[in-house]
Amino acid sequence: MCGASLPAASADVLAQNRRVSTPFMIEKTQRDAGRAWDKFYKANEDRFFKNRHWTDREFEELRQNDHDLLTHDTPVLLEVGCGVGNTVFPLLEKNAQLRVHCCDFSPRAVDMVTKHPAHDAERVNAFVYDLVKDTSLSAHLAARPAWPAVSTLSLIFVLSAIPPHEQVRVVRALLDHIPTGASVVFRDYARGDLAQLRFHTRRDAPWAEPSLLSDSHHWYRRGDHTMAYFFTRDEVERLFAEAGGVAGSVEEVVRTDTNRKTGAIMERRFIQARFRRV
Description:
With 278 residues, the protein is an alpha/beta fold. The chain has one domain (19-277): 3-Layer(aba) Sandwich (Rossmann fold), CATH 3.40.50.150. Helices cover 29% and strands 22% of the residues. The strands form two sheets. The chain has a seven-stranded mixed sheet, with helices on both faces. Helix 8 packs across helix 10. It is globular. It starts with 7 loop residues before the first helix and ends with a strand. The relative contact order is 0.16. S-adenosyl-L-methionine-dependent methyltransferase. GO terms for molecular function: RNA methyltransferase activity; S-adenosylmethionine-dependent methyltransferase activity. Its EC number is 2.1.1.-. It holds the Pfam family Methyltransf_12.
């Protein structure tokens, strides 16, 4: 389902329990974001997220037989917020020609990428990079001078981990590093997703304090102190329009699953977009 409206019951849940965190906690959450993700990967290693075998199904730009490249037969992906490689390694396995620049601001996550059994330094350029604070992306890309220019930039569940007031600047900086004609693929959490509803309904210890980080944005602090933002389709359209230099389409995707154990119906909501650098 695409473009479905938010059910009234979900809207009611989001209207409840909207106590905002203190300014100190908000500032601390932003300041310690990298450290929080590093602790997350220390605790979970590569066990938390499943490999994303669906990315080339959802985005034709990531398929092996996609011939809509810039000027070369070799596709080059820039994967930001790569984590432990849940997107990178399934794509490398499917496409022998693919080369990948990938980065994360968790040194522990990048270390796990380089130690992965499928890691090949000839095909993977993995590096630590903070999208908000660092400005050395050009130097990292230049570490593979023989590779063609980036043909696809992927932003998959990464902007939701960035404070809303930084998102446009981050996207604009990334777009500056891809050439005209390159593709941008985006997927992230949508407003009303099951993960957001849980912030308003859970009462166990890790969620006891107010998790909402803004009274004007759907921006939260998880129990492990990482951040989560929930987008609307209009927000993503405005974000990329303000960043400038791209044209494309944005849609809301709704997936309904049933918990086999409890029989509960779970609704997952995502914003998905495809752009072209113009």
